[in-house]
Amino acid sequence: MASDQELIIQFQQSLNKEVVFTQLLRKHQQKVYYQIKRMVLEHADADDIAQLVWIKVWNKLDGFKMESEFSTWIFRIAYNETLNFLQKQKKQSTRLSNDDLFTYENASGSSDEPKTTEIQIALESAIKQLPEKQRIVFMLRYFDGYEYEKIAGIMGTTVGGAKANFHQAVKKIEKFVKKL
Amino acid sequence: MEHLKEKDSLEQDQQWVESIVKKNHLNRFNLTNTDAPFNYFESFPDQLMSRIQLEKNKTTNTSAVKIFFINHYAKMVVAASFIILIVGAYMFNNTTMKIETLTTVSIQEIPNEEMTNYVSNNEAIAELDFDLIIKKENSSLENLEETEIQKIQKAIIH
Fold it and tell me: Distance (Å) from the C-alpha of residue B80 to the closest C-alpha of chain A?
């Protein structure tokens, strides 16, 4: 399978761009989609954002100078598009609502030992209530296993900033889960 | 800060999280939030490419419209400049011709025959004019009083 760099050069030199672009798309579409989905949670929203991301990639790939990895570049576009979407949807954001708190408190108060589903709900609530930056760093670091350098590249921040965000995210999750 | 330094490696970071929340709970969370509808990834490239094609067509149409308008205006400008050029050239030519005729023709250059012809052709008119003047003068002389006539006669004799 051709590397990203080879495919990009082919795309930039080729007249039949669709074929090369589809190869790049098939290679990265799942990770891009999952990154977005974990942030917005709804498939329809994730699909819309993913399409916007790939259209941007299509429009800008001719000018891509390969100064960074293609995956970092595309995840950064995805990150920015997702943040834009979340800012627009601030009122319907995925942060913990009063209803969620009520459900969580009722569930946890019903027995001495928290059940798996309760922990699951609590964990989801904890992650959902994290500020966007902390949430994305947590996802990229824990679930995707990215290095801090890459996370910083995606988010347009420093390595120290990315580490601090992860640290704060874990501390908040810990505080939330300890309530159980 | 010490805590941050200690937890620099990926493995350490993951272990730290798993010490707070069980790994299977984290995995379940990941699974529930990274699912996609059946065949979504198979159909996504085709959907996206058709959307890109659609957007491309839109842009080409808009640019075509723009080009059309630019051409339309360009045509107008070209036509206007052509008209200005033709009118300007015509006016310039006319003035130079006039200047040329005025400067180049002098009396010495006119042939004698032409001059004689002109004089003979215009002799009748000249005579007519002369006659008219004399008649006018005569009429005015007729109106003169005798004393004024005598004065004139004296002046002529002296």
Answer: 40
- Say which amino acid occupies A87: Q
Judge whether A155 and A166 are in contact, CB under 8 Å. Answer: no
Query: Which residues of chain B lie closer than 8 angstroms to A141, CB-CB?
Result: 10, 13
Q: What is the pLDDT of residue A150?
A: 92
Q: What is the maximal distance between C-alpha atoms in chain A?
A: 66
Give the integer Cα–Cα distance in Å for B153 and B158: 9
Average pLDDT of the residues of chain A: 83
| Domains (range + CATH), chain A | 4-90 (1.10.1740.10), 95-178 (1.10.10.10)
Would an 8 Å CB–CB cutoff place B64 in contact with chain A? no
Quick check: ipTM above 0.85? no
* Preferred mutation among B9, B21, B25, B52 to probe A, highest tally of A CBs within 10 A: B21
- Mean pLDDT over A61-80 rounds to 91
Tell me if A162 sits within 8 A of A137, measured CB to CB. Answer: yes
- Taking only the tens place, the pLDDT of each residue in B137-158 is 676 666 777 777 788 778 877 6
N residues, chain A? 180
- Nearest chain B residue to A164, by CA: B4
Q: Out of A26, A55, A173, whose CB is closest to B52?
A: A55
CB-based contact B41 A164, cutoff 8 Å: no
- With both helix axes pointing from N to C terminus, report the angle between A4-13 and A70-88 in degrees, rounded to the nearest 10: 80
How many Å apart are CA A104 and CA A120, to the nearest integer? 10
Query: Alpha-carbon distance B72 to B76, whole Å?
Result: 6
Write down the pLDDT at residue A106. Answer: 43
Inform me whether the C-beta atom of residue B34 falls under 8 Å from chain A C-beta atoms. yes
